[in-house]
Specification:
It is a single chain. With 287 residues, this protein is of the alpha/beta class. The chain has helices at 28-35, 69-81, 117-141, 159-178, 210-216, 273-280, and strands at 17-21, 44-48, 62-65, 90-95, 100-105, 111-115, 183-188, 190-195, 199-204, 220-226, 239-242, 252-253, 264-267. β4 (90-95) and β5 (100-105) form a beta hairpin.
C-alpha cells in the first residue's frame, strides 16, 4: 500500500528521480523507450495511464495498463515486496509491449515510470469528486441536513478536492521516489503560467500548486523541446533536453557538490538521449 515514508535516515538514495515534460510529439514517452535500452535503467517497468504507448512498443520495456489509484497501489506493493527475497514471487501480467500475457518477477526492474503524472493527477481529482458526492449523499441520508445540489456534481471540483488530491499525489511521488531503490521517471504535458517576477513560464501540466511541487520533488525536471532549423523552410527533427537555466521554462537538475553540467543536451532521432543524460550526470551502473 502506498504510504508516506517516515524515518529514511538509514536509507542512502542513489537512484535518480526525473520528470520529463514537453508538448505532444516532443518525444516524452519515446525517452522511456530509450531508458529500456540503457543498462543503467533497464529493465524498465512503465505504468501506463495515458493509453497511448505505441511509440515505445517493441522497445523492450514492460508496459502495464493502470487506470486508477487502486491499480497503482497493486504495482507499488509488488515492487516493494520484490526488495525482500522471500516475497519476490512471480506474477502474471499483460505486457502491452508484446501484446501478450507474461510471468515476471518484479525484482528484475531497475527503473519504473509513470506515464503520465498529468493523467494520473486528473484521475485522482475525478475519483475525489466522485468520493465527495457519495459522502454528501450519505450525510444527507443519515441526517436532516439538506445538501446543496450543486455540490452533487462530481465534475464541479471544490477546493477541498484539490487539497486532498494533492496530498495523495505527494504520498505517491515520495513512495516511488524514496522506498523502491529504483530510478523513477514521470512524464507530463506542459502548461504556461504567469509567475510574478518571472512572466510566462512553462511548467508541468498539473492543476494549482501541484505543478511547482512536482517539479521541485525530483532530482531533475527536464523540458523536451524541438530545435527549429536555422534555414527557412527546412525541417529539423533534432531535440533538446533542457536541464537548467532554459528561458521561460521550469527546468532544473540537481548535481553533486561542484559538479558542472551543460544547461541543455541536443540530440537527434538516432541518439539515445537517456544514455547521453546519464553520461552527463556521471551516473554509473549499480551492481
Amino acid at each position: 500500500m502506498l504510504y508516506c515514508p517516515g524515518d529514511l535516515g538509514s536509507l542512502k538514495r542513489i537512484n535518480k528521480s526525473m520528470l520529463l515534460f514537453g508538448p505532444s510529439g516532443s518525444g516524452k514517452t519515446m525517452l522511456l523507450g530509450h531508458a529500456a535500452n540503457d543498462p543503467r535503467t533497464s529493465p524498465l517497468l512503465v505504468l501506463n495511464f495515458e493509453g497511448g504507448c505505441s511509440s515505445i512498443e517493441g522497445s523492450g520495456a514492460t508496459i502495464i495498463q493502470v487506470n486508477n489509484l487502486e491499480d497503482l497501489n497493486i504495482q507499488y506493493d509488488r515492487l516493494e515486496a520484490s526488495l525482500k527475497n522471500e516475497f519476490d514471487v512471480e506474477y502474471e501480467i499483460f505486457n502491452l509491449d508484446t501484446g501478450s500475457t507474461e510471468i515476471v518477477k518484479y525484482s528484475k526492474f531497475r527503473s519504473v515510470a509513470i506515464d503520465s503524472i498529468s493523467e494520473f493527477y486528473t484521475k485522482l481529482l475525478l475519483e475525489r469528486g466522485e468520493q465527495r458526492v457519495e459522502e454528501l449523499k450519505d450525510k444527507e441520508k443519515n441526517s436532516s441536513q439538506t445538501v446543496d445540489k450543486r455540490r452533487l456534481n462530481p465534475n464541479a471540483l471544490e477546493q477541498s478536492d484539490y487539497g486532498l488530491s494533492l496530498s495523495q499525489l505527494r504520498v505517491v511521488i515520495r513512495a516511488f521516489r524514496d522506498t523502491l531503490n529504483r530510478h523513477f521517471f514521470m512524464t507530463a504535458l506542459p502548461k504556461t503560467d504567469i509567475i510574478p517576477g518571472e512572466g510566462a513560464v512553462r511548467l508541468p501540466k498539473l492543476d494549482g500548486q501541484a505543478a511547482e511541487e512536482v517539479a521541485g520533488a525530483v532530482d531533475s525536471c527536464i523540458y523536451i523541446s524541438t530545435k527549429k532549423s536555422d534555414k527557412k523552410g527546412e525541417e529539423n527533427n533534432n531535440r533538446i533536453l533542457a536541464l537548467n537555466n532554459f528561458p521561460g521554462v521550469r527546468a532544473k537538475t540537481r548535481t553533486k557538490w561542484k559538479q558542472k553540467i551543460r544547461d541543455f543536451i541536443p540530440y537527434s532521432d538516432d541518439d539515445n538521449p537517456i544514455t547521453m543524460l546519464f553520461d552527463e550526470l556521471k551516473i554509473e551502473k549499480e551492481n
